[in-house]
Amino acid sequence: METMDELIDDWAGRLRALAPHVSDRDSRSYVYDLVQAAQRAQDEETAEAAFEREE
Fold first, then answer.
1. What was the pLDDT predicted at 15?
2. Spatial separation of the C-alpha atoms in residues 3 and 31, rounded to whole Å
């Protein structure tokens, strides 16, 4: 299983391959922000489902 850093590096590399003008730092930052947003959305869904189960 990949670590979060490995996952971010992998996807940042894919982004740079598609958009070579994007810097390493910017591509890594973009992917990191995207992963964080996805994690927050998943956490919200999990919390909402738990709340509805308790009702």
1. 97
2. 14
